[in-house]
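S2.1 Query sequence (Anaerobic dimethyl sulfoxide reductase subunit A)
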Amino acid sequence: MEIKKWLNTTITRRDAIVATAKVGAAVTLSQAITLPFATTAQAQDTPIPKDANGETVRHSACLVNCGSRCPLKVIVKNDRIVRIEPEDAKDDAVFGEHQIRPCLRGRSSRWRVYSPDRIKYPMKRVGKRGEGNLNVFHGMRPRPLLRRN
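Output structure tokens follow.
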């Protein structure tokens, strides 16, 4: 009986506006409250430790086109990548906590960084497609080429 009474009620425009205002206020207040796990840790100015060979370990993610973002350990010496290893923070012995290992594309991304064919500047094709004739753009030169009349 109560359900039929509830279903037969009419909603006025005023009731709809009041309900919308209440929902908006609730959303606004929920954004103002910070939860303990929502705060970000501040980076400290501590130097990165080096091992006996002068190598430092940096942590990164694999950014090839598969989309899984596998964790990587990048070993750097003299600001140059020496090798890339998989992240070994998790223990495979614990059931359900498996280590995510990057594929060979991710582990060989060092060659992509230092490839002589890597495009480092904005370029414009001069000839036909596939000929490989490219000119380097300098400064704000490409802007008029992109404008349409």
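Strands lie at 55-61, 71-77, 80-86, 123-125, 134-136. Helices lie at 2-7, 13-32, 104-107, 109-113, 143-146.
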